Amino acid sequence: MYSITPFELEDITSAAREVIALCKEDSIWLLEGEMGAGKTTLVKAIGKVLGVVNTIQSPTFSIVNQYLTSAGDTIYHFDCYRLKSAVEAFDIGVEEYLDSGALCLIEWPDKIADLLPARFKKITIKEVANGKRAITVTDNVDI
Questions:
Q1: HEC string of 93-133?
Q2: What count of other Cβ atoms lies within 10 Å of the Cβ of residue 19?
Q3: What is the three-class DSSP state of 40?
Q4: pTM of the shown model
Q5: In this structure, which long-range contacts are made by residues 56-61, counting pairs with CB atoms below 8 Å and at least 24 apart in sequence?
Q6: pLDDT in tens, 9-45
């Protein structure tokens, strides 16, 4: 497990750089945290660092958004919060996205736990004292 020093949300780009360095060997990144912890804000910062050329926004209603980087890479951003079951994710073809080799950033991954591959990074973000955020990164742990 690796912990990133608590930071202000204004400094999330630096935290995103650390997350990328820690997770770059894997293409499935699970983002966990309470509602409002900063998961989507972290995804936006990761996208900025990776050179995403389109607007990053929460895929709450679409379940998955696709972004392209200036290098031509694809990033998939999932928000599974509104899914009632893993069957819904299966029906939209989540396994094809996960098997694509593209970076997949997944918010609320517990909703699709049965469909996740064996290899992933778990990124947990939480609010700590004075509105700062803390991030921990772990390998292939139970969600």
A1: CHHHHHCCCCEEEEECHHHHHHHCCCCCEEEEEEECHHHCE
A2: 24
A3: helix
A4: 0.93
A5: 58/107
A6: 889 999 999 999 999 999 999 999 999 999 999 999 9
